């Protein structure tokens, strides 16, 4: 079982994170990558890298034969799957063993048993682990699922039997919505996991999502490393996680931990795993599922226990016994993690793609940022929308929370849209501060969605000044040497001039005047004097009238991208004669992001109402309904099922009534 070279069958932040530990243990590392990832940090970090195809994951990161061949070609004796992709694929684990290599994870049979939610629930019921009431039968017909849902009662959860991460999962509030939810969940599950099998569970309202990190070796030892609270989630995808839970007492931890260990023993588990529970306010808890891999949120456990979980995975895979017992496990302080996604919370949380023009990860006491990106890369539509994890630890929960807010502000990505402002808002909400967030927290807090940021006059003045300052610098460079006396001399008073900016779909008229130490910008008739106190490596400190603004900025000829606190603002300068995006007719339906069309419901001549579903677009492993923005008659349909679209592609045209 010993090996000196480890291949990481993954990408992004988890691949880089695994490699850092492997290298610290003296292991040689091998990366696999696609054309879309050829400039990714995990490729540069590895001792050797093997190209496994173009961007689509089906032909690359999900191709077991290519990955095993890459391990054999490079002399890797072990493969670590990370999370996602093939990490919970029993066939992949078995193929690795058949090739004489070591899989850093549990045995294939444990993966198979726990990977099927229906089988897993039956096993847990047999082992005495409390489970959510539901249906996990073999009859997968729509009629059977509808009948069983009526027995369970509403609201009911429709879930993919395979996989996780919120894919293939829908909460159904009434019988009328059940058929559509079954259809979408089955389609999403088949696309993501290769299986359309579903289970049903009673939707437990206002509960907490609590998971226990378990570890087992090949000698019969099984322990847990405490719990993580993962209740802040949207569409069943976790957004913020913490350890320990604000509500789990020592006594409850012992009870839930014992059940987590029993769950692992029921399948003769080995390695790192996570047993997930729903916890009701009464203290009653139910088994949800077991993830047979390392979790995205494992850093919070590492920070409160001081244990490197990847190092422990590698040691167990090499045949070592666990070096600690349950009595040795202690939880020191508190840790909270926030997931930085390429998505637009103010636009229905749509996934975003685009360049990474500026990237800076926060540093500081108790702060850790796990990322797999770097400046100059592109955020691709082929992969999950998570870009980085921002984690903070402190002696108390409040210290950890305060450090995390600061770290979210200081972890800056410009070029594509991210959820940084949303994360900061959640962390500062009174319910989260009080530790009262449950699985319904985000729906309750943002019932109409997350509101768009309302720009201020100082924001506008700063953007105009940054664009004008960049113009001035280019002009000076092109002019060659000009003395400072000549630069500041004029035979007449300098005139003001118009600067038109666009923010989203809003056109903003300003006027500006150059001053020796900066600019005066008039916004809505009010003057704002802007001067730059300090500029370095994309960071800027500006004085706007009597206030000081610390920001990061990426400026091109006509675009100013600015980070102020948790805000990420993009202003475009509209030059005379340019056509603004706002002139596009509202009846023209365009692709909101790159993706593949999995359904087209629109037909020429069809009457539609505002909000009607016209098509379903799959992007970043999720399916998104494309709806009509107006009521009218469809005049043209320019797309078909299976077509790969780019953001902005015209899909459907509607003659508005």
- N- and C-termini, Cα separation: 70 Å
CATH topology of the largest domain: D-amino Acid Aminotransferase, Chain A, domain 1
Q: Can you say what the CATH homologous superfamily of the largest domain is?
A: ATP-grasp fold, B domain
* Strand arrangement across the biggest beta sheet: 14-13-10-11-12-15-22-20
Classify the secondary structure makeup into a structural class: alpha+beta
What is the total tally of β strands? 39
Low-confidence stretches: 579-585
Number of domains: 5
Q: Strand percentage, roughly?
A: 25-35%
Q: How many helices?
A: 17
Question: What's the CATH architecture name of the largest domain?
Answer: 2-Layer Sandwich
Secondary structure topology:
Blueprint lengths: L4 E4 L3 H13 L3 E6 L7 H5 L2 E4 L12 H11 L3 E3 L9 H9 L3 E2 L4 H8 L1 H10 L7 E2 L6 H11 L3 E5 L8 E4 L5 H16 L4 E5 L5 E9 L5 E13 L2 E7 L6 H16 L5 E9 L5 E7 L6 H8 L3 H9 L16 E8 L1 E2 L5 E2 L2 E2 L2 E3 L6 E5 L6 E2 L6 E9 L2 H14 L1 E3 L5 H8 L2 H4 L7 H5 L11 H23 L4 H4 L9 E7 L2 E10 L2 E6 L2 E11 L2 E6 L2 E9 L3 E6 L2 E7 L14 E3 L4 E6 L6 E2 L4 E7 L2 E6 L4 E6 L6 E2 L4 E7 L1
Parallel strand pairs: 1-2, 1-4, 2-3, 4-5
Antiparallel strand pairs: 6-9, 7-8, 7-9, 10-11, 10-13, 11-12, 12-15, 13-14, 15-22, 16-17, 18-21, 19-23, 20-22, 24-25, 24-31, 25-26, 26-27, 27-28, 28-29, 29-30, 30-31, 32-39, 33-35, 33-38, 34-37, 35-36, 37-39
Helix pairs in contact: 4-5, 12-13
């Amino acid at each position: 079982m010993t090996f000196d070279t480890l291949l990481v069958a993954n990408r992004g932040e988890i691949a880089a994170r695994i490699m850092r530990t492997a290298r610290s243990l003296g292991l040689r590392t091998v990366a696999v990558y696609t054309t879309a990832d050829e400039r990714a940090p995990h490729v540069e970090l590895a001792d050797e890298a093997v190209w496994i195809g173009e961007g689509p994951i089906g032909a690359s990161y999900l191709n077991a034969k290519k990955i095993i061949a890459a391990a054999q070609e490079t002399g890797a004796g072990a493969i670590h799957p990370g999370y996602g992709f093939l990490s919970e694929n029993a066939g992949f684990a078995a193929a690795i063993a058949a090739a004489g290599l070591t899989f850093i994870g549990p045995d294939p049979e444990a993966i198979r048993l726990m990977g099927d939610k229906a089988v897993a629930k039956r096993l847990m019921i047999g082992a005495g682990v409390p489970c959510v009431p539901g249906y996990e039968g073999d009859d997968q017909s729509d009629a059977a699922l509808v009948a069983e849902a009526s027995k369970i009662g509403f609201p009911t959860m429709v879930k993919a039997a395979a996989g996780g991460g919120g894919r293939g999962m829908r909460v159904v509030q009434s019988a009328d919505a059940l058929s559509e939810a079954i259809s979408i969940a089955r389609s999403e599950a088949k696309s993501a996991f290769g299986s359309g099998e579903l289970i049903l569970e009673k939707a437990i309202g206002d509960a907490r999502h609590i998971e226990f990190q378990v570890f087992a070796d090949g000698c019969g030892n099984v322990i847990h490393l405490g719990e993580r609270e993962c209740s802040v989630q949207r569409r069943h995808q976790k957004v913020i996680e913490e350890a320990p839970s604000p509500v789990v007492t020592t006594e409850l931890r012992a009870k839930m931990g014992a059940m987590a260990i029993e769950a692992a023993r029921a399948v003769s588990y080995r390695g790192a795993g996570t047993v997930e529970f729903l916890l009701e306010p009464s203290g009653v808890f139910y088994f949800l599922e077991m993830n047979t891999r390392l979790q995205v949120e494992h850093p919070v456990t590492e920070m409160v226990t001081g244990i490197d979980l990847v190092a422990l995975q590698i040691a167990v895979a090499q045949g070592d016994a666990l070096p600690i017992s349950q009595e040795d496990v202690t939880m020191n302080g508190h840790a909270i993690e926030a997931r930085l996604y390429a998505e637009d919370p103010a636009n229905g949380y749509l996934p975003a793609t685009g360049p990474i023009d500026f990237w800076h990860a926060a540093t500081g006491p108790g702060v850790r940022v796990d990322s797999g990106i770097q400046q100059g890369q592109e955020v691709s539509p082929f992969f999950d929308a998570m870009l980085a994890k921002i984690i903070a630890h402190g002696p108390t929960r409040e210290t950890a929370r305060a450090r995390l807010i600061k770290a979210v502000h200081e972890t800056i990505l410009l070029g594509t849209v991210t959820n940084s402002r949303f994360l900061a808002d959640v962390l500062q909400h009174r319910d989260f501060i009080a530790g009262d967030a449950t699985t319904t927290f985000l729906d309750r807090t943002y019932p109409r969605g997350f509101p768009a940021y309302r720009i201020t006059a100082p924001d506008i003045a700063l953007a105009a000044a940054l664009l004008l300052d960049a113009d001035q610098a280019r002009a000076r460079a092109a002019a060659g040497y000009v003395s400072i006396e000549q630069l500041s001399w004029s035979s007449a008073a300098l005139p003001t001039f118009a600067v038109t900016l666009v923010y989203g779909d809003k056109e903003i008229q300003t006027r500006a005047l150059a001053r020796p130490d900066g600019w005066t910008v008039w916004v809505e008739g009010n003057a704002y004097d802007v001067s730059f106190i300090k500029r370095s490596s994309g960071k800027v400190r500006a004085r706007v009238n009597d206030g000081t603004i610390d920001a990061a900025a990426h400026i091109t000829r006509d675009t100013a991208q600015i980070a102020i606190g948790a805000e990420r603002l993009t202003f475009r300068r509209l030059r005379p004669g340019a056509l603004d995006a706002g002139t596009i007719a509202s009846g023209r339906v365009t692709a909101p992001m790159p993706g593949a069309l999995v359904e087209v419901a629109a037909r020429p001549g069809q009457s539609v109402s505002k909000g009607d579903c016209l098509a379903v677009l799959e992007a970043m492993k999720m399916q998104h309904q494309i709806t009509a923005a107006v009521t009218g008659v469809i005049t043209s349909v320019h797309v078909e099922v299976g077509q790969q679209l780019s953001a902005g592609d015209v899909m459907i045209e509607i003659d508005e009534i």
